[in-house]
Automatic annotation (TrEMBL):
Its main location: nucleus. This is mRNA export factor GLE1. Signal peptide: none annotated. One of its GO terms (molecular function) is translation initiation factor binding. The keyword Protein transport applies. It is found in: Nucleus, Nuclear pore complex. PANTHER family: GLE-1-RELATED, MRNA EXPORT FACTOR GLE1. Belongs to the GLE1 family. InterPro entries: GLE1, GLE1-like_sf. It comes from Jaapia argillacea MUCL 33604.
Length: 578
């Protein structure tokens, strides 16, 4: 049996006429078959329309199965199961053929796409090369033009210089002529004036001699009368002084006995207090001023005799240490008061030093870092107080990040500032028992060579401002005990307890710096105890301890008097502030 499927009724664009049907058709016997066939064909055709372009062009002839089935209908008749299966297989084979994708066409399409991309890359490369060549040619043209301009400018400058020299020579010649004329004129004028002055001088000299003679006689008479009066007063004064001296000796003897009794009582009370303080320190883990100073000196000596000595004796380590030190110092000098810049430089320093942790080179780098910070502080902070802020932040970052930096920084701080960060009176012998020479003691006090006392005080103020700012800084994790806020209280308590240090005007300069940095914060932190401390300090700078002018802090030097006024004003400012 033969079946045929009709073509689509849509005409071609050129003919606008219906195409002839296929030689086989798909007749249906009843309407139910036709509708079910149309629904199946429409579902498959919608799936087919989303495939490739070649399939869509082929399916244009058969929009739906309803069109295929509706073109030529034959009289309805019953179909056998074999016929029905044959029709379905025929439709399925047609659909499979229309959905077929040709690999050659796909390869050709991809080849066109790759060729276009290659052509675009080559065009971009050629365009870039041409642009570079044009830029280079323009640059060479500008250089030639600039060279020509320079040459012309040099010729003009040379000509102008020769003209300027010629003009100066003419001016000098005229100026010399005028000077010679003025000189001769003034010589004649001065000769006339000198003659007149000699005449007047002779008259004045004669009058002066007459007046001096009269004054001499009057003075002799006055001196004779005064001598007699002074002799009388002297004898009366001697009698009064003799009587007063006897009374003073009696009072002095009584006062000495009273003072000895009080000193003995104070000595016993102080001994008991020191014993109690020693027990409390041992309980709380606190240290004395001497222990803090000895720790700094011992750390410094270990650093110099160990890591520093090993690094300097090894040529390779010394060269590497020099390179790292040259990288550390500029970074400290580049600091600005910018949080991002401070964090960037801090991270660079940590990345530079921390990989060498535990080695001799690591400790040598920590020493160089501490020295760079203190030197920058001596130069910058002494001139401008606000420049200490970025240094403080970098120092805190290093103290909280680099192991063992706290002890080395404390040792270098006591080396540059002497005993003042403790504070402490340096003994006559070093920690190893050797006696200090004058030069060694001056060096241990923090003095530089040929440094005056004023320069010394100003430099220490810059260093101690950095230290005080570290004590009051907000930190994410606690620092070493030498750099915690309670050290501020300890510093002032030790300072006011060392009479030998209080005789120096440097003590007043450093206390003024400390009050300027953290006096008000200490008032909020320590409360009434800090107010008592300020009261004792105020007494020492105004009336002297115990009301004695001999016990004024800072002594009687001009620097001490000026520093006392500044400390007094600082205490008053803190007490009147909320």
């Amino acid at each position: 049996m033969r079946f045929s499927a009709p073509r689509s009724l849509s005409p071609e664009p050129r003919r606008r006429q219906p195409r002839k049907s296929f030689t086989f058709g798909l007749p249906s016997d009843d309407e139910d078959y036709d509708s079910s066939d149309e629904s199946q064909a429409s579902g498959s055709d919608s799936e087919y329309s989303s495939s490739s372009s070649s399939s869509s062009s082929a399916s244009a002839e058969y929009e739906t199965d309803s069109e295929v089935a509706g073109i030529s209908r034959r009289p309805a008749r019953g179909r056998s199961a074999a016929e029905q299966r044959y029709i379905e297989d025929t439709i399925a084979s047609i659909r499979l053929r229309t959905r077929h994708k040709d690999p050659y066409e796909e390869w050709q399409k991809q080849l066109k796409h790759d060729s276009l991309a290659t052509a675009r890359r080559e065009q971009a490369s050629i365009r870039t090369q041409r642009h570079t060549e044009q830029t280079q040619a323009e640059k060479e043209r500008k250089e030639r033009l600039a060279a020509l301009h320079r040459k012309q400018m040099e010729e003009v400058q040379s000509r102008l210089s020769s003209l300027e020299l010629q003009r100066k020579a003419e001016e000098d010649k005229l100026r010399e002529g005028w000077k010679l004329r003025d000189k001769r004129l003034w010589e004649r004028i001065e000769a006339v004036i000198k003659v007149e002055e000699d005449k007047v001088r002779a008259k004045l000299e004669a009058a002066r001699k007459i007046q001096e003679e009269a004054e001499r006689k009057k003075r002799e008479e006055e001196e004779k009368r005064r001598a007699e009066e002074e002799e009388r007063k002297r004898e009366e004064l001697e009698r009064r002084l003799k009587k007063q001296k006897e009374e003073e000796e009696r009072q002095k003897k009584a006062k000495e006995e009273e003072e000895k009794r009080k000193e003995e009582e104070m000595r016993k009370a102080k001994a008991e207090m020191l014993k109690q303080e020693e027990n409390e320190r041992q309980t709380l883990g606190l240290t004395t001023a001497e222990e803090d100073w000895r720790f700094a000196r011992e750390t410094l000596k270990k650093l110099k005799g160990g890591p520093m000595k090993n690094v300097k004796s090894n040529k390779e380590l010394k060269s590497e240490w020099g390179r790292l030190r040259r990288e550390i110092t500029p970074k400290i000098g580049q600091l600005t008061n910018n949080a991002r810049e401070i964090n960037r430089i801090s991270q660079q320093l940590v990345d530079l030093i921390r990989p060498r942790a535990g080695s001799d080179l690591y400790y040598a780098c920590l020493s160089s870092l501490a020295k760079a910070i203190l030197l920058q502080c001596e130069t910058e902070v002494t001139a401008e107080k606000r420049s200490a802020l970025p240094l403080v932040q970098v120092t805190i970052n290093m103290l909280s990040t680099l192991p063992d930096f706290s002890s080395i920084f404390w040792a270098k701080l006591c080396q540059r500032a002497g005993p003042w960060p403790v504070p402490f009176v340096i003994p006559s012998t070093d920690v190893d028992g050797t006696k200090f020479t004058d030069a060694e003691r001056r060096k241990a006090l923090g003095y530089r060579e040929e440094e005056s006392r004023v320069e010394y005080g100003n430099r220490l103020c810059g260093i101690m401002r950095l230290y005080f700012l570290i004590l009051f800084a907000n930190v994410q994790s606690p620092l070493d005990k030498m750099f915690q806020m309670q050290r501020y209280w300890v510093w002032f308590a030790r300072m006011l307890g060392e009479g030998q240090l209080l005789d120096s005007s440097v003590a007043l300069l450093l206390m003024h710096t400390g009050l300027d940095v953290g006096g008000l914060d200490a008032k909020h932190a320590f409360g009434r105890q800090w107010i008592k401390m300020l009261g004792l300090l105020y007494e020492g700078v105004t009336t002297g301890f115990g009301g004695s002018a001999e016990r004024l802090i800072g002594g009687q030097t001009p620097e001490g008097r000026a520093a006392r006024v500044r400390v007094q004003l600082q205490v008053e400012r803190i007490m009147t502030s909320e």
